[in-house]
Input
Amino acid sequence: MPSRALIPGRFQPPHWGHFHLIRWVLERFDEAVVVVGSAQKSHTFTNPFTAGERLEMLRLGLRDAGIDEGRVWLIPVLDIETNHVWPRWVEMLTPRFDCVVSGNPLVVQLFREYGYCVIEPPMFDRGRFTATRIRRLMLEGGDWESLVPPSVAEYLKRIGGVERLRRITGGH
Output
């Protein structure tokens, strides 16, 4: 049976740091289960893109990064309002996994309380690669495109991602 690691995130949008993490995980496990969290949320500054859009961007980015798509599961997961049971919610909606990989302190704590193996990975140039920073750069007209795979940048342009962010934030 293959070993699998769970990678939860919102991927708003997916950037090179995410793909470095997926590659890092696949050096240690046979497969990665990428949970696209807050799947019900979209059209806000924090969550501007739909789950479907994020799934498409992740698939495109995997190709750009040269990552074997056959080793990656992409699973959208809706939020629930009870943090304590969230690991069980995720467990119910995903394929079996052996370990959780996350740098989010709440995710780490919740899965550890349920006895899961949890790995806190190294951060990949965290100062540059954060989705919040990328969304800010999109709003400000800065260089956000170099921080995401080329096909993700193209996709965001095609769906009017920058314009959407400007409309939903009133331009700031």
Notes: The CA atoms of residues 139 and 171 lie 7 Å apart. The chain has a mean pLDDT of 95. Residues 51-64 form the longest helix (14 residues). Strands lie at 4-9, 31-36, 72-76, 99-101, 117-119.
